[in-house]
Amino acid sequence: MGNIITKLDLMNNLTEIVTEYAPKCRKSVLRNSHMNKMDNKNPSKQDVIEAILVDFVNYVGAFQGLDWGLYTKDLHKEDI
């Protein structure tokens, strides 16, 4: 991921990352199940969506050399 100077740079970089991430998504979400509340036997649609979003944000962070550590519970801070 190169330097982000413009909005177009941001979108191009995210497109590159998601293109690489998409084929790995399922394995990545399952491997990182400790970071989401997804019930692997009977997940709700919302749990799956949130698990993928959180996993993708963490994947982008890893591209930047960061262990971002976002959890699905962080998406619901008002519930805590």
Keywords:
80 residues
Report on this structure.
It is a single chain. Helix content is 51%, strand content 0%. It has 80 residues and is mainly α. The chain has one domain (7-79). α1 (7-21) packs across α3 and α2 packs across α3 (45-63). It is globular. 9% of the residues are buried.
Task: Present the secondary structure layout.
Layout: H1 7-21, H2 25-31, H3 45-63
User: How many strands in all?
Assistant: 0
Spans of 5+ residues with little confidence (pLDDT < 50)?
none
In one word, what is the shape? globular
Number of helices: 3
Number of domains: 1
Quick structural gist:
With 80 residues, the chain is mainly alpha-helical. It has three helices and no strands. The radius of gyration is 14 Å and the shape is globular.
